[in-house]
Amino acid sequence: MGTELAPKGKSCRIVTTKVLEDDIAIACLDHDKGFIYFNLSDIDNQSQNIKSYVTSLIDQIKAGDFETPLVDMNDEEVCC
Length: 80
Known about the structure:
2 helices; alpha+beta; 26% strand; 3 strands
């Protein structure tokens, strides 16, 4: 699992990725649309600028370079 920050694209940046059983979830911050969440398998459904940016980083994404630990709310104990 990496802690590396993804490089900034022209109009977007990957915030984090998460390896799933058979896919990779991506959270991306787009200058115009805000946060965008999608699976790598759905990259063809994204705008051209996002598709181009993510495709250029595909090897690093698959290697887990941009993956950060996320909280699973189902595993967390309720505090109040």
